[in-house]
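job 3f2a | input accepted
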Amino acid sequence: ITFRTSKLTLEGAMREAGPRFRPLVKTNVINELNIRKLILRCLYGKSFRQPYNDNLAEFRTGLRCLTSLHALSRCEDYRELKKGDVKFEIGEVHIYWRKRKNNQKSKVQISTIAALPNHPLCLYNAFHHFFEKTQLTETQFLNCRLKRNGRPFGNERISRSTCYQDINKICNELKIGRVTEKMCKSLGTRYSL
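job 3f2a | predicted structure (193 res):
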């Protein structure tokens, strides 16, 4: 028996055993109400209703979570996006992903999300508002550093830990359990199936 043969045998056994011993899904961890509260608070401020939040750092956090909800994206995928990767067509927003974790052939992947007229969680309107207020150039990251006035600060993006800190700050303010972008993605997956 060669090393390769024993390795393949072990991999086969692990593939068979894996489904039998999956971790239990903790349904109580993904709280839909808390996710909605977080996104609405970030997008609309403390009023939770129109007009959009003037604090664009909070809005940026809500936009990242809203994109995870609609496009089933991960934090790292979103961090790679630039303004030029988001295109608008009549009633739709197209996101051209630079990187996706499961994209093993490096083909361009596109998420198409329809506008939701008069809906508070409309990604189309949220992107329009963010681009209008920040005046991002085509080559600047969506997850850019922002000055106090909401304008982008250089061409750098915020770190992953800053993304998590921004979410935790809002969760603590709302006195809700921790919410992550992965939870937003999981909630979006629930509704897409």
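job 3f2a | DSSP finds seven helices and five strands in the chain.
job 3f2a | closed
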